[in-house]
Structures are given as C-alpha cells and as structure tokens.
Amino acid sequence: MPNVIKGYVRAIDAMNRLIGRFAMYLIFVLVGVLLWSSISKTFFNPSLWTLETAQFVMVAYYILGGPYSIQMGSNVRMDLFYGSWSLKTKAWVDAFTVLFLMFYLGVLFYGAVSSTAYSLGYFGLEPFQFFGDLLKTLVTDGLDAASTKLGYLERSSTAWRPFMWPIKTILCFGVFLMLLQCLAELFRDLGRLRGDDF
C-alpha cells in the first residue's frame, strides 16, 4: 500500500481513538444527569432539563464512540461462520460488506446534514450549498453577517425547549467520523489481501 494510504489509516485511527476515549467518559455525565433527575424528583421540584439532557448525552456517547467501536472491532457482528474463516477470507468479506456500511452512512450523513440545516432555519433542498454559503459569509464578512443567513432556529417541543442544532451538529460530526473510519477499514482489508499489514 502507498505511504499516503498508510498515513491516512494511522491518522484516522489516532483521531478516532482519541475522540472515542473521550466519548466513553460521557457515560459518567449521563449517570450524573440521571442521578440528579432522581434526586430532584424525590426531594425538590423536578428539573425540566434532565430527561432531554440525558438523551443528548446518550446520543453523543453513542455517535462519537461509534468510530472507535468500528476500529476496535467491537461492533455487533453476527458470527455464524466468520470466526472459523481464514484472515484472507475475513478480509475479502469485510472489504465487500464495508461498502454497504459506507453507503448507509452516506445516506445517514446526508440526512443529518439536511436536518441540521433545517434546525438552523434553512428550508431549501440544497443543505450543503447552505453550509457553503454560511461558511463563506462567516469567513469573508464575519459572524454578524453569517447570523443573518440563519432563519428561525428549531427548538424541541418539550417544556424545556432547547435548541436542536448542537446535537444535530454532533450527529453530523460522528457520522462523518464513522465514514472516515470505514474507509480506513477498507484500506486495511485491502492491505491484508495484498499482504501488507498496518
């Protein structure tokens, strides 16, 4: 394999390992939020923010830990025959099936970007163009001009009514990282088929 591909695989692995190791500590944040929810419901007035905050933390935990899970091979896999196959057969099957995962993640990423654009007040059909224009305006004209491009910001329909764009942005970021990790896994499997191990 070319050095540029090996460098890509090493860089993506290192980045997703770092983010995944950070994300695994979000479980303690989740426990803290749920503990406070139980205490406040028992002894004080119930907090409005706890249920939705717990949901948002769980989404961040799951979606940011996903690429690290793929890297470690700890994602759920149905192992009827796979465990008894040779390394080359596993590499062939993994290289083929990761393409389906990448297609699914690509569709999911497009939906996440569209949903994030919607949460920022964009109701058109070109979310990537919206974000391109927003970034261009931010770089050239500054934050005030970019904020005028935003429409009505979506809020949750609950009593707490938090803005939805932060968690949707995390969703986009996590799915994009999963796509990058899947591409690294594809390169790793192709390298195994060629006899390169990295």
TrEMBL record:
Key words of the record: Cell inner membrane, Cell membrane, Membrane, Transmembrane, Transmembrane helix, Transport
Cellular component annotations (GO), alphabetically ordered: plasma membrane
Membrane-spanning intervals of the chain: 18-36, 48-70, 91-113, 163-184
Ranges for domain Tripartite ATP-independent periplasmic transporters DctQ component: 30-190
One Pfam assignment: DctQ
Topological type in the membrane: Multi-pass membrane protein
Job description of the protein: Part of the tripartite ATP-independent periplasmic (TRAP) transport system.
Subunit comment: The complex comprises the extracytoplasmic solute receptor protein and the two transmembrane proteins.
Name of this chain's protein: TRAP transporter small permease protein
Gene behind the chain: dctQ5
